[in-house]
Amino acid sequence: MLVRKATPEDLPVLLQFEQGIINAERPFDSTLLPDPISYYNLEKFITMPDVEVLVAEIDGEIAGSGYARIKKNDNTYYDFEEYAYLGFMYVKPEHRGKGVNQAVIEELKNWVAQQGLAEIRLEVYSENTDAIKAYQKAGFEKRMVEMRIRL
Predict the structure, then answer these.
(1) What is the DSSP string of 62-75?
(2) The pTM is what?
């Protein structure tokens, strides 16, 4: 498996991955607008210095993706000024269970450490137990549960 920085040539596959993420998350969030929607500006992310977009290849095929984005901490009560936010984590169904997600996360952790940051955060729907298990396997811990009410 090869994990590498995404390029503009990868965009067609990455845009398909984005729709795969949206389709997987629709059952967890009734407030998502009808298709077509987009979560990310992937074309811009690929070129931004404070975002690292990675793809994992298996036998020359892009099998998975993820990004880390440096964000400013707006809360004065934490002991860090900036942190990395992980997103766009996707593995094609036929490649799940092969360590793709773990490989991408490890490379993103390396990039975050190279940026001098010590904090990585992500969001996952509480009902998405498979994703939660994968993130826990990579060392993430549950921190807080967001709650809401629709009026």
Answers:
(1) EEEEEEEEEEE---
(2) 0.94
Contact present, 56 and 104 (Cβ < 8 Å): yes
- Please report the sign of the dihedral spanned by the C-alpha atoms of residue 44, residue 42, residue 9, residue 103: positive
pLDDT range class, residue 121, cuts 50, 70, 90: very high
CA gap 82, 32 in Å, rounded: 29
Tokens (6 digits) for 89: 């984590």
- pLDDT tens digits along 53-108: 999 999 999 999 999 999 999 988 889 899 999 999 999 999 999 999 999 999 99
The CA distance from 62 to 72, in Å, is 31
C-alpha to C-alpha distances, 13 to 10, 18, 64, 65, 135, nearest whole angstrom = 6, 9, 10, 10, 23
Residues 6+ positions from 31 with CB-CB distance below 8 Å: 150
Q: Record the tokens describing residue 37, joined without a space.
A: 């929607």
Do 104 and 89 contact (CB within 8 A), yes or no? Answer: yes
All structural domains of the chain, each given as residue ranges with its CATH number in brackets, are 2-137 (3.40.630.30)
